[in-house]
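pinned: reference chain
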Amino acid sequence: MEASYRFFTNTACQYFPCHKSPSAEKFNCLFCFCPLYFLEECGGNFKFHKHIKDCSDCSIPHTIEGYDFIIKKIKCALEEK
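pinned: its C-alpha cells
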C-alpha cells in the first residue's frame, strides 16, 4: 500500500477487530487507542456513561480515511491553543 504509515492491520491481536467492521482487510489498527479521545469534540460517534467517554460505536480511527481525519483534527486543536 502506498503511504503505508497511514494504515496497517494486525489480525494477530487478541482483540481484533475491536470494533464492528465490514471488512478485515480494511480495518486500520494504526490508532489502536484514538488520539482524539481527550478532545471534547472529537468528531466521532461517542456517548458518555457515568462521565466516561464510550467510543465503542465509533469506527473513524479504524478506517482507511481515519489517518487524515485524525491528523486534521489534531492540527486544528493545536491551532486553537
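why pinned: The two ends are 35 Å apart (CA to CA). The helical segments are 66-80.
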